[in-house]
Automatic annotation (TrEMBL):
Keywords: Lyase, Pyridoxal phosphate
UniProt protein name: Threonine synthase
Superkingdom field: Bacteria
Presence of the UniProt keyword Lyase in the record: yes
Sample GO molecular function, one term: threonine synthase activity
Family stated for the protein in its record: Belongs to the threonine synthase family.
Amino acid sequence: MSTLLDENTTGTPSKGLREGAFGNARALACRECGHEVALGPSYACPECFGPLEVAYDFPTVTREEIAAGPRNIWRYKALLPVPDDIEQSPNTEPGFTRLLEAKNLARELGLEKLWVKDDSTNPTNSFKDRVVACALSAARELDAKVFACPSTGNLANAVAAAGARAGIKTVVFIPSNLEKPKQVNSAVFTDHLVAVDGNYDDVNKLASEIAGEEEGWAFVNVNVRPFYAEGSKTLGYEIAEQLGWRLPDQIVIPVASGSQLTKVDKAFKELIALGLVEDKPYKVFGAQATGCSPVSVAYKAGTDAIRPVKPDTIAKSLAIGNPADGIYVLDICRRSGGAVEDITDDEVREAIVLLARTEGIFTETAGGTTVGVLKKLVESGQLDTSLETVVINTGHGLKTLDAVSDRVGAVATIAPSYDAFVASGIL
Ligand SMILES: Cc1ncc(COP(=O)(O)O)c(C=O)c1O
Ligand SMILES: [Zn+2]
C-alpha cells in the first residue's frame, strides 16, 4: 500500500511529523497480537494483519480539567490522538450532545430509568462528525491532499462538511441507491460525491484499491481508520460525564462496522483505568436490522464466525454486510452479559414513530433500529428493566424521511374556516 508519508511499519516514527502531532498517543497497537508500529497512516498489523488501534501513555487527567474544556469533543483532547492545539484548526467541533432522560419511553417500555444520548444534533446530524473530526486532525498532521471515505451516507455528509470548513479537497463514495437527502447533504458541501453502482461493501473495496494506488489520500475509515475510530470514544466519555461521572448499567448501540460499539466500550474502560469513574459492571447490547444482521446471526448461533451478507434493509446507514469490527462486538457483548439482537424493517419504522411520539426525537432508521431492539430486548427478557439504561440515537430522521412518510401525515385537509375545522370532527 502506498502511504501518505512513508512506509510506516517498522516502529520508527513517521518522518516529518511535528512534535505532539497525535497528543498522548504512543503507537498503533495490533488488537490481535499486541505488536506496536509507529504512529502514521497504517491500519493493518505487519505481523498478523490484525487491525491496529491507538495506544496511549495517558498523563493524569482530572474531572476538573475536562470540565474546564470547551463544550465539544475537544474537552477530551488529552484522551484522543490529536495535538494540544487542536482547537486552533478549523473543524466542525461536534459533540457534547444532549443526554435526555426518556421518562415517557421508559414508561411505555416498562423500564425504570432510561436515557437517550441524542447525537442527531451534531453539525451534520449524526455521530459521524465525531469520528471525522479526529480523522481530519490526523489527515492534516500527515499532510494529506485529499480527504475521502466510502460511506453508507452519514460519514460522507460529515467528511464533506469538515473538509469544506478545513479547506481540504474531499471525495466521498456512496452506494448509488442511497437515500436522496443523504446524497444532497454531501453534494451541498463537495463537488466530488461519487455514486457507485454496488452496495457498501463494493464501495469499501474500491476505496481500499484507491488508497493503495494514490499518494496523499486520507481515507478516513481506511488508511487513517485507527485515528478516526477514536472519535467514537467521546460518546462514551460524554455519557459518563453527563451522568455525573458514572457509567450506566446497560447501553444499547447500533452496529454497522461495529466500530462505534467497540470504542464506547474502550472509553468506559479508559475512564475506569484513569480513576475518572468507579469500576462497575455494565452490559453492552448491539442492534442490527434483520436485513443486514451478520453479527446478530453469529451471536445467536453462538459462533465467532461472522458470515458476510448482502444487505436488504431500509436501515441503509447500518447496511454493512462484512463488518470489520464484528468479532470484537461479539466479544464485548458476550463478556459484558449483553447481547446482539435484530429487528425487521417494519419494527424499525414503528420504533421511529414510537421515539418521536414519546420523546419528541425524530431519529433515522439507525435510531429506529436501536430503539426497536431495545423494545425487543425488554420483551424477550434479555434486558433487566430495573437497571439504568442508555440508548444511543446516532442520526436524524430528516435524512430518511421515506421510511415513515407513508405512516404519518395530515389528519385531515380542510378549508381555511372555523366551520370546516368543526366539521372535520377532530375535536
Ligand atoms: C446513523 C448511524 N448509526 C450507526 C452507525 C454504525 O456505525 P459503526 O460502523 O461504527 O458500527 C452508522 C454507520 O454508518 C450510522 O450512520
Ligand atoms: Zn498483529
